[in-house]
């Protein structure tokens, strides 16, 4: 079953493992993946690291989601107004950027289908 997607436009950075950080915006986010809006997406099956910026609220301060995943779909501009790529998230960690709070801990996602 496909995880529900939320149309969130969040600032993010990503890079192929060992590569240079690039800036982008999310198109949507789910528990198992994220769609990244960029003009020049990486190639299919590229393993990436990413950092999603989270804004703070009264209940929780600002933070970031750091994660790793694999490019599972590349979308050219002919299919959507904004080109981009879909990442299957393999692991992630919530990190607080508020010095009064601590990180929630790492979460690994089993993306293997049986």
Which features would summarize this protein structure in a list?
114 residues; mainly beta; six-stranded antiparallel β-barrel; globular
Question: How many β-strand stretches?
Answer: 7
Oligomer category = single chain
SSE pattern? EEEEEEE
Query: In percent, how much strand structure appears in the residues?
Result: over 45%
Radius of gyration (Å): 14 Å
Number of helices in the DSSP assignment: 0
Helical residue percent? Answer: under 10%
- Low-pLDDT stretches: none
Overall pLDDT metric: 84
Largest beta-sheet details = 6 strands, antiparallel, barrel
- The geometry reads as globular
Euclidean distance between termini CA atoms: 12 Å
Order of strands across the main sheet: 1-2-3-6-5-4
Which secondary-structure class do the elements indicate? mainly beta
Describe this entry's structure for a reader.
With about 110 residues, the chain is an all-beta fold. It has a domain of about 60 residues. The protein has no helices and 7 strands. The protein has a 6-stranded antiparallel beta barrel. It is globular and about 40 Å long.
What would a concise description of this structure say?
With 114 residues, this protein is an all-beta fold.
Helix-strand blueprint:
Blueprint: E1 11-16, E2 22-29, E3 33-37, E4 47-54, E5 63-75, E6 84-96, E7 105-108
